[in-house]
Amino acid sequence: MTTGMNEDCLPEGKMPVIRVPARPADQNPGGSIFGGWIMSYVDIAGSIPALSRVKGPVVTRAVDSFEFKKPVFVGDLISCYADIISEGKTSIKVKVEVFAERMSKGEISCVKVTEATLTYVAIGENRRPKTLPDK
Ligand SMILES: CC(C)(COP(=O)(O)OP(=O)(O)OC[C@H]1O[C@@H](n2cnc3c(N)ncnc32)[C@H](O)[C@@H]1OP(=O)(O)O)[C@@H](O)C(=O)NCCC(=O)NCCS
User: Fold this and answer.
1) Which of 16, 18, 114, 124 meets the CB 3.0–4.6 Å disulfide criterion with 98?
2) In this structure, is residue 92 part of a structural domain?
């Protein structure tokens, strides 16, 4: 497995918020993994730092950008990393990076497969936007 901070390896010194293997049921007819499966994990991953920051409910307001840089295949172990990149009054922008570890013939290779930015909004009991709590 490669190490370091380049595009093709797991970021050093950071914990993924989700790690999950891609299974045969997650494939599309073209033989790679269905994009919606990855999008779902990206949304869940992005919500984790937003939930920790708000300490209450958040909803996904927008997917600001989403790039499938490389395909994911059955057997790949995907790791999602999520970091808050900016905050507004009620909203939080989170960058999510997804890497796939691919095991073959006793070797592990690692590739960055997806990068996305999402906006979450803190909501109150009325389901309306709520000012973020102090840090
Ligand atoms: C989230 C929701 C309550 C916000 O209501 P709203 O009327 O859009 O609220 P506002 O216009 O005041 O915007 C709230 C925040 O979102 C931001 N925002 C609004 N539209 C945005 C967009 N297209 N992209 C990024 N941020 C956006 C605003 O800038 C504001 O942030 P700030 O307070 O930090 O400046 C409402 O849009 C909603 O319920 N959406 C559905 C959420 C949902 O079901 N998600 C999917 C499942 S979790």
Assistant:
1) 114
2) yes
